[in-house]
Amino acid sequence: MLHVQREREWTQGGDQLTVRAEVVLATHDTFGGVVAGLGVPAGEATRSENADQSVVVHVRWSGSPHSDGSFELIALDRRVFPARPLAADGGWNSEGGTGSDWAGAYEALAQHYDWLSGVAAANYTDANGMNTFPTAAVNAPAAEDGTVTAWFRQWGEGTIPFTDPAGEIVVAMFYVDDKGQVRWARRIYGRPPR
């Protein structure tokens, strides 16, 4: 019975949330104005100076039954298969500034959602065991209602700028309980990866 209940949580866990996501592309010159327009106080957002383009994501949710743990936000490049996670530079949530993270427990996402298979660490581990996976998630405290604004960038050599966010970027939100275990994920923006 517990196994069936857990499988149901993986497939329907985020269904009760009402979520609205907005994605805006920003350059060095427009970044400050974009994040301020999405609720980040002026001067509070910093981004990688090496990135030509930032993907700024603003998410607002309501109706969550969770009052502990966190919601994590990730963005993926769906132009490649499997969809590749973008590196998270930072974010702003109800408690103020937040950084980026990635925990081993998040590997469960690739096991339960084919559209998140690109987050498996094995995709980024070379023959010598070196892992190049970026810190890809930005968090917000789980609460009935909330917002988070996060900014991401492409990583690696030879990046190609995004031009069509809805067609090229997928944003997912996932819930991590107070024990650090992923409970479910939900695609909240963009077309499904191939």
What does this structure look like?
The chain is 14% helix and 37% strand. It contains 4 helices and 11 strands, in the order H-E-H-E-E-E-E-E-E-H-E-E-H-E-E. The protein is globular and about 55 Å long. The chain starts with a helix and ends in a 5-residue tail after the last strand. The model has no long low-confidence stretch (mean pLDDT 90).
Structural class: mainly beta
User: What letter string, H or E per element, gives the SSE order?
Assistant: HEHEEEEEEHEEHEE
How many runs of DSSP E, i.e. beta strands? 11
The largest β sheet comes out as:
6 strands, antiparallel
Uncertain residue ranges: none
**Whole-number radius of gyration?**
16 Å
Terminal CA distance reads 33 Å
Average pLDDT works out at 90
Beta-strand percentage range: 35-45%
Give the number of domains. Answer: 1
List the helices and strands and how they pair.
Blueprint: H1 2-12, E1 18-27, H2 31-37, E2 53-62, E3 70-77, E4 84-85, E5 87-93, E6 96-98, E7 100-101, H3 108-112, E8 137-141, E9 146-153, H4 165-168, E10 169-176, E11 182-189
Antiparallel strand pairs: 1-2, 2-9, 3-4, 3-8, 3-10, 5-6, 5-9, 7-8, 10-11
Task: For the structure shown, list the relevant keywords.
194 residues; mainly beta; six-stranded antiparallel beta sheet; five-stranded antiparallel beta sheet; 4 helices; 11 strands
